[in-house]
Design brief:
The protein is an alpha/beta fold. It has helices at residues 21-27, 37-44, 56-64, 86-93, 95-109, 123-139, 160-169, 196-213, 247-253, 284-287, 308-321, 328-345, 351-365, 373-387, 389-397, 416-421; strands spanning 72-77, 113-118, 145-149, 184-186, 189-195, 224-231, 237-242, 262-265, 271-274, 298-302. The chain folds into 3 domains: 21-213, Rossmann fold, CATH 3.40.50.11540; 224-302, Ubiquitin-like (UB roll), CATH 3.10.20; 308-421, NADH-ubiquinone oxidoreductase 51kDa subunit, iron-sulphur binding domain (de novo design (two linked rop proteins)), CATH 1.20.1440.230. The strands form 2 sheets. It has a 5-stranded mixed sheet with strand order 3-2-1-5-4, sandwiched between helices. Strands 7-6-10-8-9 form a 5-stranded mixed sheet. It is globular. Bound molecules: iron/sulfur cluster. Iron/sulfur cluster (SF4) binds at residues 156, 174, 323-327, 330-331, 369-371, 373-374.
Length: 425
Amino acid sequence: MIAPNTLPRVLHEASGRPLTLAQHEEAFATSTRSGSLLDELEASGLTGRGGAAFPTARKAKLIRDQRSHNKFMVVNAMEGEPSSHKDRTLLGANPHLVLDGAEYLASVIGAKNIAVCVSRDNPAAVNHLKRAIHERERRSLRGPKFELHTPPWRYVAGEESALVHWLDDNESLPQYRPLRPHILRIGHGPVLVDNAETCAHVGLIGRYGAEWFRSVGTDANPGSTLVSVSGAVERPTVVEVALGTPLRSILEAAGADANPQAVLLGGYGGTWFDGARVDAPYANATLQPLGATIGAGIIVVLPQNACGVVETQRIAKWMANESARQCGPCAFGLPAIAEDLWHLTQNARDNQAACQRLIERCGVIEGRGACRHPDGVVRLVRTALEVFASDIENHLRGAHCAASRSAQHYAAVPSLEREEELVWE
Ligand code: SF4
């Protein structure tokens, strides 16, 4: 058993090779849970680790209460964010813990089928899952049936309604959901979608219970979480930390610049966060009053000598290319935002007007997509305008910006060739 108050948890016994079923069972043999799984899940306070931070027990109850004999459990390991490595790290360490959690959740909602989704562009993770599912099938054919699905990788393909759309109809297009929570369906069957890391935590709560889970983290945000750290760091890495750990300690643990100009929190639809605030505890309850969230557990570190406007422009351009192009404000608005930012970085003659247009466009685009993709870009741009106010001032004055001509960048965006390859037709 993993002792309370200790880390790592979901990365326990991580060795660079995925644990076999036998190794996994040996490492996690003890069970100390006393209450029903749903009660323990509720008491644990676990929230989804895929970005939305919705309470996992509430989501499961919603599907459990649907009258249907054809329910589905879906594990979302698509990891559409280019700066996220946590799901592939987890699957490379212990795919069985993720599958345990999926089995627990399937038993709560009464699902006979579990669809495990991982991008076909991530062959190592596909292989780890194939092998793990095969091992379980050889052991026993009882219990819910696992099926591996490998949609093509795109940013929006991991959005849960797009993923269910793919499973239902082979199209990775987000569905319009005016009210949340909204019940997604495959055919007529209600679907519970949970992120791979969330499932791994459920796998541990199912064994050790809520009290154990809450022995790290804070009252409002209990437990541990995986964080993908990239940018001004020796090499991109994934660390498991207790929620509430000071951001600066996470940067130090990851070998990153601990005195950055800014950090991007939550991913490419996330928030630029001023480097002067990195002593803030890393947890939604403490970051939300500061205008940020942990999102999908991503930190991109920007050093003092980088230009935040240039980084934002590169991300916005890539995100514009990732639009599923089914909503006008997203299909036309995001490229226009990227172009305005480009004008700004080039110190073009009309950059004052470009800056004004940028602010207006954010207001027009926000809340007008079928999914949250454009809202994420708006959030990114608005926080850039605030956090990089002095960089913007310099560009508006036409001052020299070495970063706009430099080949060194900190936010990873797939290469231009990749972007072209991925153009949505
Ligand atoms: S908002 Fe954008 S990404 Fe989302 S469904 Fe509409 S076009 Fe696609």
